Amino acid sequence: MPEPLCCCRHSLGRWTCCWIKSDCTLDFLSAFQRETVTVYLLFEANGLNFGTHNMINTGKLAGRTLFITGASRGIGKEIALKAARDGANIVVAAKTAEPHPKLPGTIYSAAEEIEKAGGRAHPCIVDVRDEVQVRTAIQEAVAKFGGIDIVVNNASAISLTNTPNTDMKRYDLMHNINTRGTFLVSKECLPYLKKSNHAHILNISPPLSMLPKWFGPHVAYTMAKYGMSMCVLGMAEELKGDGIAVNALWPRTAILTAAIEMLTGAESAQWSRKPEIMADAAYAILSREPKQFTGQFFVDDEVLEAAGIKDLKQYACVPENADNLMVDFFVEAKGATAPTAAPAGAGASTPTTGSDNGKIPQLFQKIESLLSPEIVSKTQAVFQFNISGAEEGIWYLDLKNGTGSCGSGTPPTTPDSTLTMNSNNFFDMFSGKLKAAPAYMTGKLKISGDFQKALKLEKLMKALKSKL
């Protein structure tokens, strides 16, 4: 087979892709994918196959300039790489200039990857809270690339804490990065977006839902993320006369990023999709005509299905677990109906103590026999369990004081974390069948108080599993 023009090589030496100019209409593609422009082809070792497996790069972003915040890693970097394959210009606007001991990537390593993917990159040290840094980065981008066509507001901060456990420093951080940062970057880019004939603002933020369950466990974080979404709602209306599209994109499931790994632990890949699904969905949105495509709140898998991508299993970090993924905050599982909020105080109250009969008392007796000063020293947390279902009641586990204690009723001191679930899920958690993080994100477990300390309980259960 003759070597294709302008090809890139796989790290193992196989042909992976090439750009071919085509003047023919590709009738076998969906209408969304069918273009008479640059076509992205996939070469395999056993011959030439057209790659319709992922969202195809059509070249629509070639020469366009994207200003992407938080682009040094994760979703932001994947969106940048996807656009780079079209030959786009990418402003890598993020804080990480020096390697972080726990987080991968810097603005410079991301820029290098973008250049290798076929784009042009300009790395900028940008804290979106800093007006001077934001303005300087925009001025540098315009000087280098001649303008700005697309803004992706991806930078974000998260703290899954309730009101008493959210200190004001953390509150201010989330609101200044998420809401204020999004507003500031969009505002400062507006003069250049108005000059573009393909102007988009895309916020990585959720659909606006007023269900109390999205507010109760972490109201400060929800307010900060919804602030980004309200920017979409307001700016789409404000800027539609200028031909600037303003939309939001949010993942259906957990995405394997540094943030989700910190929240859910080392096994988070089992329950997550790869960032590429968000990059492909963003590419589909940003390729559209902005004047006819604004004010929308998109979910990644719905965007791809509308574009003709039916095989979503490819995006799962572990394809064998593609049907058992963590659903992200602010969206329902695919096909689920959003529940109606119950009036305050509705439903039966939970008894103040647990029954002495059943499996739960036996379980806590076993746990009590295994408590030690070492476990207390490692955990340093008090847990309260509000159990519903067959063995309804309240139980506690004190792993902060003395040699530890547990039993029926509320703990002797204020709990650090309160976990609410039914008795079946409770048994599954302590037997290792159900993990705390996926249970929380799929609605099987509610956590109030210190989220990180609640996740410590999972490590404890893993250590005790063989002894219970």
UniProtKB/TrEMBL annotation:
<dbReference type="Pfam" id="PF02036">
    <property type="entry name" value="SCP2"/>
</dbReference>
<dbReference type="InterPro" id="IPR036291">
    <property type="entry name" value="NAD(P)-bd_dom_sf"/>
</dbReference>
<comment type="similarity">
    <text>Belongs to the short-chain dehydrogenases/reductases (SDR) family.</text>
</comment>
<dbReference type="GO" id="GO:0016491">
    <property type="term" value="F:oxidoreductase activity"/>
</dbReference>
<dbReference type="Pfam" id="PF00106">
    <property type="entry name" value="adh_short"/>
</dbReference>
<keyword id="KW-0496">Mitochondrion</keyword>
<keyword id="KW-0576">Peroxisome</keyword>
<keyword id="KW-0560">Oxidoreductase</keyword>
<keyword id="KW-0521">NADP</keyword>
<dbReference type="InterPro" id="IPR051935">
    <property type="entry name" value="HSDL2"/>
</dbReference>
<feature type="domain" description="SCP2">
    <location>
        <begin position="371"/>
        <end position="462"/>
    </location>
</feature>
<dbReference type="InterPro" id="IPR036527">
    <property type="entry name" value="SCP2_sterol-bd_dom_sf"/>
</dbReference>
<feature type="region of interest" description="Disordered">
    <location>
        <begin position="339"/>
        <end position="359"/>
    </location>
</feature>
<dbReference type="InterPro" id="IPR002347">
    <property type="entry name" value="SDR_fam"/>
</dbReference>
<dbReference type="InterPro" id="IPR003033">
    <property type="entry name" value="SCP2_sterol-bd_dom"/>
</dbReference>
<dbReference type="GO" id="GO:0005777">
    <property type="term" value="C:peroxisome"/>
</dbReference>
<protein>
    <recommendedName>
        <fullName>Hydroxysteroid dehydrogenase-like protein 2</fullName>
    </recommendedName>
</protein>
<dbReference type="GO" id="GO:0005739">
    <property type="term" value="C:mitochondrion"/>
</dbReference>
<feature type="compositionally biased region" description="Low complexity">
    <location>
        <begin position="339"/>
        <end position="355"/>
    </location>
</feature>
